């Protein structure tokens, strides 16, 4: 790859301060997820959060980010019409809900 | 022949794909600092139709459209998508170049059906990422880039010898690469109105038939591959007057610059500091030091020395940047035991951050920037 002209790894927001107090954009709460793996991809189907079951009707987008040696798989999913962002850390095998997408 | 693939409202389109509620709505992407205190980083086509554009202050955008949707930028999402599009395009088997995070140039040589290829690229991008791209086809990069802007969004346009004059005459001068700002204004003041005027008056601008060096493999010569400078800058959510907190921000930027230097096994002799004061404008200072360094703390200390040269009165700072240049390969071994211990410490910290993620471990002073 010829990346000489542009380096997409250059990040400017690593040290962005986090908002304080309740923040629907920064939940980071552990969840349990039923998912299937197909063609080297992950498809979450249902997640359980605060003793409630959320059926995933659609995965609208997914992307990855490397944090150190961990690879984080992010999914924006829709449950009952409400979009959520959930993520899977392949190093710790932890699923979490990152935010309620407004 | 060059194909210039330009994603349509890239960041905004990704956010509309993530959240279908935003589709068809005027939307801007800005900093996480707050929707009223940022600049428009990207705007959806619905927002652009209202006159909202990148670089505009967000509060002006909300004056134009009070119902404007706002999403805080998520760089990881955009960078990943950009990399995946690059990989998808690599699959077509032509030489490929990153022009920017949302622009790619493909050298298709004398491929017989460029229009069909462009359509196929658009379809594959849409199928995989649910976002659209425009494609420009021409004999060189500046013309291909101009062509990609002609039929936006989802357009394909070809500029060839047959339609060159017609297309350039219809394209305003500001559509040409690098002409949207002051250069364009200067040329317009001199009576140049369209891209055809540029073509006639600045023959080198669009005239090259070849793309010298653009798609060549990177040189193996280490010196020519070495970056000339490394820089990080940051615009604060609010103007700050507290010198301790400003110092902490300089530390953050020095850490980021130092980490990149060490990753490339480089050292720097020259340190530049840039501070933007809302009431006084820019303060710029630089100094070349005898001893090269890639120690973030040293870069920070040298930046503070430069900051001491500011006018006496303490002004509020809105944006700041740290740059290092005069880069050299790190080819000396520290002799003093204190230097060796310092280097071992830095290596350990870098190792922890490489394993557990950036800023897993950081100087305590950085905490001041997170309040």
Tell me what you see in this structure:
The complex is a heterodimer of chains A (102) and B (371). Chain A has 102 residues and is mainly β. Chain A has one domain. Helix content of chain A is 0%, strand content 56%. Chain A has no helices and 8 strands. A 5-stranded antiparallel β-sheet of chain A has the order 1-8-7-6-5, with no helix packed on it. In chain A, strands 2-3-4 form a 3-stranded antiparallel β-sheet, with no helix packed on it. Residues 1-18 of chain A have low confidence and may be disordered. Helices cover 39% and strands 23% of the residues of chain B. Chain B is globular, with a radius of gyration of 24 Å. In chain B, the strands form 3 sheets. Chain B has a 5-stranded mixed β-sheet with strand order 5-6-1-7-8. A 4-stranded antiparallel β-sheet of chain B has the order 9-12-10-11, with helices on one face. A 3-stranded mixed β-sheet of chain B has the order 3-2-4. Among the domains of chain B are: 102-125 and 134-207, Alpha-Beta Plaits (2-Layer Sandwich), CATH 3.30.70; 226-370, Dna Ligase, domain 1, CATH 3.30.1490.100. By secondary structure, chain B is α+β, with helices and mostly antiparallel strands. In chain B, α12 (243-263) packs across α13 (296-307). The relative contact order of chain B is 0.09. The longest helix of chain B has 21 residues, at 243-263. At the A-B interface, β5 and β6 of A face α1, α4, β5, β9 and α14 of B.
What is shown here, in short?
Chain A is 0% helix and 56% strand. Chain A is built from no helices and 8 strands. Chain A has a 5-stranded antiparallel sheet, with no helix packed on it.
